[in-house]
Design goal:
By secondary structure, the chain is mainly alpha-helical. Helix content is about 75%, strand content about 0%. The chain is rod-shaped, with a radius of gyration of 40 Å.
């Protein structure tokens, strides 16, 4: 009896030590064995179903993330198209404040010489164009060199 206990203990110890799974049905026979095997198979089936559910959840999460990224890319593409269109429109007929009158072209030339960013630095130029529209609405009396100087002052103040 002592030898049987010792052998059993060594068997359990070696199973635990080496990480080999033990067969809970190993000592059973007949109906008990078939019932145990059936229970083990049902347990494995449940584990596989849980793993499948988890994998499907992960796949759904990845699909959702992919849809979000595609939406972001589409939004960025549309923004890029809008910016390209705006740039084409701006470069196809560059707006030049105070160029409505040919007598003021000398003022404009001297002002652009003093402000080399105009026409070459897109953010500053675009800001100046929008600010010029705003100034014309707020102060229609402001024209010529005074308008241009107000523009350069605001651009320099904003883009320090």
């Amino acid at each position: 009896m002592k030898r049987a206990c010792l052998a059993f203990s060594l068997g359990v110890f070696s199973q635990l030590t080496y990480g080999e799974p033990t067969d809970p049905c190993a000592q059973m026979t007949g109906f008990s064995l078939s019932q145990c095997r059936s229970d083990q198979q049902a347990l494995r089936q449940q584990q596989l179903e849980r793993q499948l559910e988890q994998q499907e959840q992960r796949q759904n999460q990845l699909d959702q993330q992919q849809r979000e990224v595609q939406q972001q890319l589409e939004s960025m593409r549309l923004q890029n198209e809008a910016l390209r269109k705006q740039l084409r429109e701006t470069s196809s007929h560059p707006a030049q404040p105070a160029a409505e009158n040919s007598s003021k072209s000398a003022e404009l030339k001297s002002w652009t010489a003093e402000n080399p960013w105009f026409g070459s630095n897109y953010p500053k130029t675009e800001f100046a164009m929008r600010y010029a529209k705003q100034l014309r609405q707020e102060r229609p009396d402001l024209t010529g060199r005074a308008l241009l100087d107000a523009l350069s002052s605001k651009v320099n103040e904003t883009f320090r």
